[in-house]
Amino acid sequence: MSEMVRIALDAMGGDNAPGEIVKGAVQAANEDGRIKLFFVGRQEAIAAELEKYTYHPEQVEIVNATEVIETGEPPVMAIRKKKESSMVKALMMVKEGRCDAYVSAGSTGATLVGGQILVGRIKGVERPPLAPMIPTASGASLLLDCGANVDAKPSNLVQFAKMGSVYMKNVLGIDRPTVGLLNIGAEEEKGNALVKEVFPLLEHCPDINFIGNMEPKDALSGKADVIVSEAFAGNILLKSYEATAGILLREVKSCMKSTLKTKIGALLIKKKLKDTLGKFDASEYGGAPLLGLNGLVVKAHGSSKAKEIHNACLQCVTFKEQRICDQIKEIIRVKDE
Amino acid sequence: MSEMVRIALDAMGGDNAPGEIVKGAVQAANEDGRIKLFFVGRQEAIAAELEKYTYHPEQVEIVNATEVIETGEPPVMAIRKKKESSMVKALMMVKEGRCDAYVSAGSTGATLVGGQILVGRIKGVERPPLAPMIPTASGASLLLDCGANVDAKPSNLVQFAKMGSVYMKNVLGIDRPTVGLLNIGAEEEKGNALVKEVFPLLEHCPDINFIGNMEPKDALSGKADVIVSEAFAGNILLKSYEATAGILLREVKSCMKSTLKTKIGALLIKKKLKDTLGKFDASEYGGAPLLGLNGLVVKAHGSSKAKEIHNACLQCVTFKEQRICDQIKEIIRVKDE
């Protein structure tokens, strides 16, 4: 039997905690016997949720944590002061090697800070990027960095490209994943000082398969498996994409409900439309890993439902089985030293 | 009778030139007797297009230009060398006061460079931003800078806020237009070094109605009339928005065509859906002005059809009648000196 994958879940983080966190994680554990869940948070609240489901008791443990870090709290302060919070206790379990992975739908800032301070970076990794999968017209691409490190340096982006390539190769099974640089034009001379400096570095980096600049339309069409960006622009890309999709789908829905005629039309299209648009559902990918740490730290959307948490837990299994941390260590250390 | 508004059209610029350029501009002239069109480009090609329409001859002139600046050409070189191009000749007509405005669907880079070098900046304007209207869930907002000046300084962004406010007040008639700063979080302490420095400057700027940071979802919901950004992030926002809308609408359309059932459904919804999504059609706004120059320079999409050119010409009338250049001179000079 293969090794267990021990996941520390911040049971109190996110808009739908602990209900959806417990539901999604238990589903994943029932599906995959290698998963061992540690629900970190308020004992009674977690136990009450767990009572609703059937599961193998040896796959589930509760770790009591009396404090909760709220979304609005200044992250550094929160991580330093709230030692009894679900987030800090869950992160410490990864740091101390008692867990392989951490999953939270709570404060992004606190997870990013906590991941770096408590779990710690792999030696040689300058900045750990937040790396969500984004659904594209032709599949999905990994976008990094999408918000962990603002004001990045060129060498940071080269590391993002390497780590992203390791991820796409091993987690998604893509041979020689293509790497694109997010930019505001396709030609090499386009862009700001940062991307102009990064372009030749990526071009001459032997560990990656660089294919050039990506405008948002190229990135969202899926022209590259890995999209490298500094955090500010990457975050704007991701959030614009989510916001536009949200606005347009709301408009389409409200239009379909507007008259009797359109309601009948909607009935005929609904199922097919749902299937078609399903592939743009980011929750399929189960949160974004913070790459380059001594353990897996996964940030799920604040609004995550059971499905995203379920997928986040399954992602942890692949991440461990494919030894992503070791492979990142290798590509960063060996090649950079 | 009010003064004529003289527009120099780059008749050779864009994917659909000169056909759609001539068509759209003539439509605008027929609608508004104050418009005087100068079609700059290859005499015979323009004349051949003009033959298709009825118009008042005193409203239309052809200015022969033998060269064309292509989209791929390095902009600075193209503007310097191709003195006989439609773009350079049209821009010179604005510089020399023979025209009030310039409209082109050609190379963005060449229009930006040519606008700055040939037409020139208003005294005191540090960087002229490209300022498109973007359709939002609740109307439309002005986004600036969306690509003219990368690596901007904080003081540039304060000027963008002022110029954008002048534009929205006078062109759109919005009293005390709200100004938001594009950012990756809502709180004041969020963002990169640039936006952190800009935030207090905007907060304490007496000429504008600053309402805080805008994440993409806020910007695209229409929370602020003016969205201030440096060019790289602004361009990523705009392009992501356009790309996402394009991808999703293609998916919805292809889904509707997929089976007999969905085709019938589509027939019932089509008209309503077109109306609903029509408000997200950027061509309604007729291109993006490059603000802060000694004259109006409007960049229309490369793929512009007659409708966008028509609207761009009408925009020129409002721009002149509302004395936008004078008002920008005033807000930049008086307040900055």
Descriptive terms for the model:
alpha/beta, five-stranded mixed sheet, 337 residues, six-stranded mixed sheet, homodimer, 15% strand
What does this structure look like?
Two copies of one chain form a homodimer. Chain A contains twelve helices and eleven strands. Chain A is of the alpha/beta class. In chain A, helix 1 (19-31) packs across helix 11 (306-321) and helix 6 packs across helix 7. Chain A is globular, with a radius of gyration of 20 Å. At the A-B interface, helix 8, helix 9 and helix 10 of A face helix 8, helix 9 and helix 10 of B.
- The tally of beta strands of chain A, per DSSP, is 11
Supply the helix-strand structural class of chain A: alpha/beta
Query: How can the largest sheet of chain A be summarized?
Result: 6 strands, mixed
* Number of contiguous helices of chain A: 12
Mean pLDDT of chain A: 92
Catalogue the unreliable spans of chain A: none
Instruction: List the secondary-structure elements of chain A in sequence, H or E.
Output: EHEHEHHEHEEHEHEHEHHEEHH
Kindly provide the radius of gyration of chain A, computed on alpha-carbon positions and rounded to a whole number of angstroms: 20 Å
Distance between the first and last residues' Cα of chain A: 37 Å
Shape of chain A: globular
Give the helices and strands, then pairings:
The structure is a homodimer of 337-residue chains.
Chain A: E1 5-10, H1 19-31, E2 35-41, H2 43-50, E3 60-64, H3 75-81, H4 86-95, E4 101-104, H5 108-119, E5 133-136, E6 139-144, H6 154-170, E7 178-182, H7 193-203, E8 209-214, H8 216-221, E9 226-228, H9 231-256, H10 260-278, E10 288-289, E11 296-299, H11 306-321, H12 324-336
Parallel strand pairs in A: 1-2, 1-4, 2-3, 4-11, 6-9, 7-8, 7-9
Antiparallel strand pairs in A: 5-6, 10-11
Helix pairs in contact in A: 1-11, 3-5, 4-5, 6-7, 6-12
